Amino acid sequence: MPVPTILTEGNEEEAARLLAAYYRRTADGLPAYTGSYFNSWAGGGDSSDNVDTITADDLIAVSFLSVDIPGDAAIGLLDTHSDSISRLLKDISSDRDLADVSPSEYSDFFGTNSPATELWHVLRGRDTGRWGVGETRASKIMARKRPRLIPIYDSVVGPQMGLNGTSKNQWLIWHSAFIEDKGLRQRLATIYKLSGVEDSISDIRVMDIVLWMFGKQPPQATANINK
Q: Which residues of 85-101 are buried (b: 16+ CB within 10 A; e: fewer)?
């Protein structure tokens, strides 16, 4: 799938403007978008203190992205199924970037029997009964825990990545974007640098924010995009 136009060569400055706008503060000092706290809240979901455990702070961070976790799901994630979740998280790399996963490694990281896929099923409640954690909520929890490896799926970014109404093949499509467009990672680094954002965020988080901000713009606001 072709990379969305806003992330193609020649649009770095406009993409950087969108990223900077996401992190700006209002006149009273509050964040313009609470999602700007998603990665950094309480030290981050992949900090050494809780890298392999879902915590209450992770669920708070997810709420900054305009979703909530139902009570029974929260109890399941924080208590009832915490041991199995921690076991799976330990098997999902916290120090690898999506762009660094080679095609030959893809199945180990994201295949049907991978720890990431199994964690996805646990979060969705496949074997325990659905508890209100849909595709978007599950992706945001996983992205909080593995921000360098797992992208976010939602109704704004998904269609721009060719995912129309379903998260199926989401990881494959994001991974393919980096494999097929060798310059994408460098452009994301350039966008981040130009934006002046001080928070340390991963390539895929830069990509997600830019696409989300771009997708939320009115059609006439895309005039500066080089197509």
A: beebbeebbbeeebbeb
Helices (DSSP H) in 76-183: which residue ranges? Answer: 82-90, 106-110, 115-124, 135-145, 157-160, 170-180
Question: How much is the pTM?
Answer: 0.94
pLDDT digits (tens, 9 = 90+) for 205-221: 999 999 999 999 866 56
pLDDT digits 0-9 by tens, 10-50: 999 999 999 999 999 999 999 999 999 999 999 999 999 99
Contact 51, 146 (CB under 8 A): no
User: Do the beta carbons of residue 28 and residue 18 sit within 8 Å?
Assistant: no
The CA distance from 84 to 72, in Å, is 17
